[in-house]
Specification:
By secondary structure, this protein is of the alpha/beta class. The protein has a domain of 205 residues: 3-Layer(aba) Sandwich (Rossmann fold). The protein contains 10 helices and 12 strands. The strands form 4 sheets. The chain has a 6-stranded parallel sheet, with helices on both faces. A two-stranded parallel sheet has the order 6-9. Helix 1 crosses helix 7, helix 4 runs parallel beside helix 5 and helix 6 packs across helix 8. The radius of gyration is 19 Å and the shape is globular. The termini are far apart. The mean pLDDT is 95.
């Protein structure tokens, strides 16, 4: 089957990851023909293997990535091999097969020094090795798939299928009376299930010719800080938000620099006939009602009315 005949087939790379699992689940719930390949199943830096995997696909959603931001500082070549070179290999295969590529990217391609939300067209300027590698991936998509390439930048992801900040805060609530959390980095916490649903919507719009190629910002609406996210997580989970104490980034020095401002604008969704994603508080409330998060909150619940 070619990419343009019969029921369109979707390919999800990195399907064992936190986002990849949700994308595959959303596709199956929608009744789509979908194949998921994990890192063990497919090395996206292997051109022959990628060509074989992409053949017959109408849409490829690339959730495969090197996600260790701090580790990339001392292993930039290895990180960029996945986040940059691997994306180029996928883009080349998609161009050959006539498939649309949805590339999941990051706010880290931006410098993080703005005061207003970054437009999709804002100049890039990564401040760390991870961001440089992801930017190389974006550039490959733009170069090789000018009409069929979609870059979806996201940030501050949390979900049911992998380690993440929200889960960590709930686990620590059972171990510590108070927690110091950074309050000078601004962003948009985004639930992987909400992003997964949007990726499916975008891919469907692309197949229907309703979504122009290019950059989209796949983050929740609104904005907060890590401290704000932690406090809202506690409040919604019946824990006392005052147990979260604000601190500065200087208190938690990391190998890789983090952008201080990761708030993204969402204007381009209108071009695809889609509204921006829901507010981060609404997404968080929905996520915390799922079994994984309610189980984490249970042992630490302190009787707060929420």
């Amino acid at each position: 089957m070619t990419a343009n005949s019969g029921t369109p087939r979707w390919l999800v790379t990195g399907s064992a990851g936190m986002l990849g699992q949700d994308v595959l689940s959303e596709l199956k719930d929608a009744g789509a023909e979908a194949v998921g390949l994990s890192r063990a199943d497919l090395d996206i830096t292997d051109p022959a293997a990628v060509r074989a995997a992409v053949e017959g696909a109408a849409v490829v959603v690339n959730c495969a990535a090197w996600t260790d931001v701090d580790g990339a500082e001392t292993a930039e070549e290895a990180a960029t091999a996945v986040n940059g070179t691997g994306v180029r290999v996928l883009a080349e295969a998609c161009a050959e097969a006539g498939a649309r590529l949805l590339q999941v990217s990051t706010d880290y391609v931006l410098p993080g020094d703005a005061e207003l939300p970054y437009a999709e067209s804002a100049p890039t300027g990564p401040v760390n090795a991870y961001g440089r590698g992801k930017l190389a991936g974006e550039q490959a998509v733009a170069e090789l798939l000018p009409r069929d390439g979609y870059v979806v930048r996201t940030a501050w992801l949390y979900g049911e299928h992998g380690p993440n900040f929200v889960a960590t805060m709930l686990k620590l609530a059972a171990q510590r009376d108070t927690l110091d959390v950074v309050d000078d980095q601004h962003g948009q916490p985004t639930w992987t299930r909400a992003l997964a649903a949007r990726l499916v919507e975008l891919g469907t719009a692309a197949l229907d010719g309703r979504a122009p190629a290019g950059v989209y910002h796949g983050t929740a609406s609104g904005r907060t800080t890590w401290c704000g996210l932690a406090r809202e997580t506690y409040r919604l989970s019946g824990l006392d938000p005052e147990r979260i104490r604000p601190t500065t980034s200087e208190a938690f020095v990391r190998p890789a620099a983090r952008p201080a401002f990761s708030v993204l604008a969402h204007d381009r969704w209108a071009e695809a006939g889609l509204a921006p994603l829901a507010d981060w508080r609404e997404q968080l409330a929905d996520a915390l009602r799922t079994p994984v998060f309610t189980a984490l909150a249970g042992p630490a619940r302190d009787g707060s009315s929420g």
